[in-house]
Specification:
This protein is of the alpha/beta class and about 240 residues long. Helices cover about 40% and strands about 15% of the residues. It is built from ten helices and eight strands. Strands 1-2-3-4-5-6-7-8 form an eight-stranded parallel beta barrel, surrounded by six helices. Strand 6, helix 8 and strand 7 form a beta-alpha-beta unit. About 45% of the residues are buried. The protein binds phosphoenolpyruvate. The site of phosphoenolpyruvate has 13 residues, from strand 8.
Length: about 240
Amino acid sequence: MLIAGNWKLHKGPEETAAFCRALRDQLEWVDGVDVAVCPPFVSLSAAVQALAGTNVAVAAQNVHWAAEGAFTGEISAPMLFELGVYGAIVGHSERRQYFGESDEGVARRAHAALEAGLWVIACVGESAEERESGETELVLKLQTQAIADAVGPHDQLTIAYEPVWAIGTGNTATPDQAQAAHAFIRSLLDVPILYGGSVNPENASDLLDQPDIDGALVGGASLDVASFSAICRAAAPSS
Ligand code: PEP
């Protein structure tokens, strides 16, 4: 089971260091769960330092496909690797929606990160309109296939199923809806699959109990140490 916290545009270096120190204390006794935090780029170094010697991984929220070059504002996989960062998210729906990232670009980012030795969480998910018009599987197929074509079932690749309508809305997918989407994605690409979309300490167990849900990518509820730790505890095998 893997629980990853996507902090989005929250927490500068100081707040990050304090959060990571508190998280370290909270998770001391949680066994059997892989935990990762994904701070903004400027806070990655603080997280790497504060979590050194623990099992908590630090991942970036995005990564560019080029190792270097004329790409103002971007960060490359070798740069992250040099910083001691373990992995990166690619293709988050906010990147697709607000920054025009395409299936092809997401696949290139995933490929470059894996080549550089990073672990990758690649996000896929349908919008409310796509679900309502019966296009969920078509969208998941196009997004997942682009990643599969670029990298295949790489052992450092994780997919996150994040229905756009469930992100930051409080409208969590039901365990049955999430399970159905995960089983479909797994039929296309057999790698670990996280669920993301309004996961909180109350709904985590029911979602994580589903056979094809291998963990969670948590946004809002990962910003608070107590709620993020509670979700990590809910993922522990004995809970
Ligand atoms: C996310 O942005 O990856 C996410 C799942 O957000 P939230 O948990 O806030 O819905």
